[in-house]
């Protein structure tokens, strides 16, 4: 193994009259968790809550609460607070469309529903866990996130985007292929999402890390394919037997085949680049062949996912001091769910665990990313941010140990980068993901250099 190294904003203050309840600290932003597999989408649940609120159906809202929420915000209290909001802002005039803005490490979705009153505009923020409302918060409407603008390392004149379809009905996915403008065949990358219902850009707040990578590499002569994830486009098709294969792996294989069939692509130089959960499963995909010439793992976990989920909620719960009783109860709940996930065996059925069916966890329990990486003979690049609290240096240590005698593996660490491979200072916090940034230029150059040396 060759190894090289190199060396937020605070939450917005809110008027007390507008505060319904603060989200539990343990339900912060994340991308390394499990997908939601509910009958109702988080957006639908949040839209129903907003509609019930507008029509003063308080009991219907409280009926959707988790036990902690029901204790912390009983119907009389919610009704009193909402009456004060209406007195201050006037009657409800319009409800905007619900939009999913993040999925936490515990599979908890945060959805925003705009509410326009006579004298003010508000954002209703609904935290949805296991088809229940786990958090409710109201704030003055935020200005729309700034439009994504290309980082300095992108040369828009060097490539063109082509709309493509990955896979076939009933699970076809829309995608974008960024093609360098050249008459020569070019190497190509397939980007693999982290967990949750991600779009093709892996959008999180104002950030578009997959678009940064795609356009950065396409500016350097590498074609990049990114596509909307199946859990976002076809969420309703998931059943109690769904595993990471249906969530992620099958679509990566289809994307590689799509690239190999295109005349612009050098089929001997197709590489998969996985982020977070995508990085964890990338060695498993490549181990099955499929004509993959190289693997890049970006912030991929090598330890069991439930272990990371517990670490994440404990980390977030302690960011602002010792966790309160509600946060401690939530942490204990996640620990219990994590233990159930770790104990899942093939053939297990029953209720979802951490937002996914038992079959999902049983499948992952039988897989060791570090051991799978050690079985690969293709070039392998592992990238890790030093400020990443979701996938930690312990995961990187396991990869290092497994690959110590493997000259095909290179590891790079970036001390100032977070889970999105964006730079910052001090402890990484969930609200950092809501600050506009770009994947670090050195990461783009590292990927481009790796691609230059890859060939089957």
Describe this structure in words.
The chain has 456 residues and is of the alpha/beta class. It has two domains: 15-140, Nuclear Transport Factor 2, Chain: A (Roll); 156-302 and 368-452, Alpha/Beta hydrolase fold, catalytic domain (Rossmann fold), CATH 3.40.50.1820. It is 33% helix and 21% strand. It is built from 14 helices and 14 strands. The strands form two sheets. Strands 1-14-13-12-11-9-10-8-7 form a nine-stranded mixed beta sheet, sandwiched between helices. Strands 2, 3, 4, 5 and 6 form a five-stranded antiparallel beta sheet that branches. Strand 4 (109-117) and strand 5 form a beta hairpin. The longest helix has 19 residues, at 325-343. The radius of gyration is 22 Å and the shape is globular. Mean pLDDT is 87; it is low at 4-39.
Give the helix/strand layout.
Blueprint lengths: L1 E4 L36 H13 L3 H5 L4 H6 L2 H15 L2 E4 L3 E5 L5 E9 L3 E9 L2 E9 L18 E8 L6 E8 L5 E7 L16 H10 L4 E5 L2 H4 L10 H17 L4 E11 L1 H11 L6 E5 L6 H13 L7 H19 L14 H8 L3 H6 L5 E6 L7 H10 L6 E6 L26 H12 L4
Parallel strand pairs: 1-14, 9-10, 9-11, 11-12, 12-13, 13-14
Antiparallel strand pairs: 2-4, 3-4, 4-5, 5-6, 7-8, 8-10
Helix pairs in contact: 7-8, 9-10
> Which class of secondary structure composition applies to the elements?
alpha/beta
Rounded Rg: 22 Å
CATH superfamily of the largest domain: Alpha/Beta hydrolase fold, catalytic domain
Average of per-residue pLDDT values: 87
**In whole angstroms, how far apart are the ends?**
19 Å
């Amino acid at each position: 193994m060759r190894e090289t190294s190199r060396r937020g904003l605070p939450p917005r203050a809110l008027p007390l009259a507008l505060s319904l309840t603060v989200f539990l600290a343990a339900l912060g932003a994340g991308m390394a968790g499990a997908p939601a597999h509910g009958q109702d989408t988080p957006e639908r649940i949040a839209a129903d809550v907003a509609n019930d609120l507008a029509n003063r159906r308080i009991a219907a809202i409280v009926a959707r609460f988790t036990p902690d929420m029901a204790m912390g915000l009983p119907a009389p209290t919610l009704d009193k607070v909402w009456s004060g909001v209406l007195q201050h802002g006037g009657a409800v005039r319009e409800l905007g469309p619900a939009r999913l803005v993040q999925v936490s490490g515990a599979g908890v979705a945060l959805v925003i529903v705009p509410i326009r009153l006579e004298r003010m505009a508000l954002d209703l923020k609904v935290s949805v866990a296991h088809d229940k409302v786990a958090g409710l918060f109201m704030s003055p409407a935020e200005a729309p996130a700034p439009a994504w603008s290309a980082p300095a390392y992108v040369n828009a004149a060097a490539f063109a985007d082509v709309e493509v379809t990955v896979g076939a009905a009933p699970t076809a996915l829309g995608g974008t292929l960024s093609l360098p403008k050249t008459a020569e065949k070019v190497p190509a990358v397939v980007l693999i999402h982290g967990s949750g219902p991600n779009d093709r850009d892996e959008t999180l707040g104002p950030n578009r890390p997959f678009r940064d990578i795609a356009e950065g590499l396409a500016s350097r002569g590498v074609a990049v394919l990114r596509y909307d994830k199946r859990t976002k486009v076809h969420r309703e098709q998931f059943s109690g037997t769904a595993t990471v294969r249906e969530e992620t792996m099958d679509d990566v294989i289809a994307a590689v085949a799509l690239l190999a069939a295109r005349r612009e692509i050098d089929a001997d130089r197709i590489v998969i680049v996985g982020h977070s959960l995508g990085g964890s499963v990338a060695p498993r995909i490549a181990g099955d062949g499929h004509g993959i010439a190289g693997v890049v793992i970006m912030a991929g976990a090598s330890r069991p996912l439930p272990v990371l989920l517990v670490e994440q909620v404990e980390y977030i719960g302690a960011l602002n001091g010792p966790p309160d009783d509600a946060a401690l109860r939530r942490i204990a709940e996640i620990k219990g769910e994590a233990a159930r996930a770790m104990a899942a065996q093939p053939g297990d059925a029953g209720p979802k665990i951490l937002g996914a069916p038992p079959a999902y966890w049983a499948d992952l329990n039988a897989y060791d990313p570090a051991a799978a990486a050690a079985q690969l003979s293709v070039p392998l690049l592992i990238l890790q941010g030093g400020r990443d609290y979701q996938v930690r240096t312990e995961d990187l240590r396991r990869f290092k140990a497994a690959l110590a005698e493997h000259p095909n593996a290179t590891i790079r660490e970036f001390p100032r980068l977070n889970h999105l491979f964006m730079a910052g200072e001090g402890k990484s916090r969930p609200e950092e993901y809501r600050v506009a940034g770009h994947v670090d230029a050195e990461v783009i150059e590292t990927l481009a250099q790796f691609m230059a040396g890859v060939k089957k």
